[in-house]
Amino acid sequence: MQTWDLVIIGGGPAGEAAAMEAIALGARVALVEQRGRYGGTCRYAGCVPSKTLLHSAEVLHMMQHHAKAIGLPPVNPDWDFRAVLRHKDDVILRAGGEDGYDVPRSFRDAGGQTFTGTAHFHDPHTLNVAGELLTGEQFVIATGSRPRVPSIPGLAEAGYLTWEGIFDLPTVPEALAIIGGGPLGIELSQAFHRFGSRVTVWEAEDMIIPQADSDAVKVLQAALEAEGVEFQLSTQIKQVRRERERRIIIAARDGDRREDTVTHILVAAGQEPNTDTLDLDQARVKCKQDGSIEVDDYLRTSAPHIYACGDVIGGYQLAHVAEYEGKLAVGNALSRTQQRSDQRVVPWVVFTSPPLAHIGMLESEASAQQIPFVVAQLPVSSVERALLVEMQTGCIKALAHRHTGELLGVEIVSYGADDLIHEAALALKLHASVHDIADVIHAFPTFSQGLGLIATELVGKLDSR
């Protein structure tokens, strides 16, 4: 039996960040990874492969469709989906750094040790990993999440894909049904449609990406529909059945029966935490009703020496938030100084084309909290750079506190929104006012000028009170 200052369970973004932070603090660290592949869902079945495929699909779309808009002849190249997948696999390997799929070499060079296998708590201070017992003074649980599969009659028998298999298809689906209108489902709807699939998104709610601003979502959905992606909103799938190589989806909307025949089904209906194999009751760690681990503001669980972070605690299920939480959990576990988790300013992006980027408060949230505010919205076409590159689809929406002028939230649908959002994130972090943003000189011609324009419009609304 070996004893460690800190035992970390899970080698995804949260676990890796936690491990490197613990090594930097001089701790004796054990890192347990079930599959022995470090980087987690984000690297192998999420962010990295999806954004790589999205970029390949965008380049293909630019050649086939956008070229004509900018005075160039459209090109329909002879392309091979298998080559696109090989590129995706190469990017995944390179994203792992010098060790590919392995843990960072610097972790082992500094004395950290890795263990492969499913972890079970034997008691509050002992972990069983493939028959080997590890004793720890402190623990960090960062076991991530897996695809949530809805209970739809016939779905399992008909066969479906999740993010764990969609990136390894040998050919482009002829007809793809996507169950779930969240960020991943929407991103892949555009990617596979651009690769040639007929794509339909099935969503039980009345809008896609429900965590986003409804005005921005309408603009994005219209852009996707203009390309040919189909949407079935406010629709409940009642049954799925298989007929040879086809899947029949039977659904209902407002009492009307709807039916579609597809070759493939992608389930993109959210995530559920990986807690069921940990034997958390042996460690006296409490979970919420949905299975996620209950933590306080310092990421401490109901067992004072055990912390948890990343997807396994729910909340924002994003790689950059998981990394932040991993470092914070270790700092709190190993230091006398305790720091609260601060997630007031968390940017997130839907990497469609154009992307949708968000930071801060939605208009609906400000209204619900009875915060006095002013709001402004402008089309991306009012930004001159959009005209120059013929990318005028999109909008910018922002709100500011009516009395102080402090920026409260920003939603951008625009080419480059994934990068533009960080100026707004910094402004929120510093409690800057829209007067501050309006006074910033934005280079011409850039999409960043849109933030200056929206800030100026908000300033005008504040001054006209």
Task: Please indicate the percent range of residues in DSSP E strands (runs of 2 or more).
Answer: 15-25%
Instruction: Report, as a whole number of angstroms, the end-to-end distance.
Output: 70 Å
Poorly predicted spans: none
Number-wise, the strands total 21
Rounded to an integer in angstroms, the radius of gyration calculated over CA atoms is: 24 Å
Helix share, percent? 25-40%
The biggest sheet, with number of strands, parallel, antiparallel or mixed sense and barrel status, is: 7 strands, mixed
**What is the arithmetic mean of pLDDT?**
95
Number of helices: 14
The shape is: globular
Return the structural class: alpha/beta
Helices and strands in order:
Elements: E1 2-9, H1 13-24, E2 29-33, H2 40-45, H3 47-69, H4 81-95, H5 105-109, E3 113-116, E4 119-123, E5 126-129, E6 132-141, E7 145-147, H6 155-158, E8 175-179, H7 183-195, E9 198-202, H8 214-227, E10 230-232, E11 236-243, E12 246-253, E13 256-262, E14 264-267, E15 271-273, E16 306-308, H9 319-334, E17 348-350, E18 356-360, H10 363-368, E19 373-379, H11 384-388, E20 395-401, E21 407-413, H12 417-429, H13 434-439, H14 449-463
Parallel strand pairs: 1-2, 1-6, 2-3, 6-16, 8-9, 8-14, 9-10
Antiparallel strand pairs: 4-5, 5-6, 7-15, 11-12, 12-13, 17-18, 18-21, 19-20, 20-21
Helix pairs in contact: 1-9, 3-4, 3-7
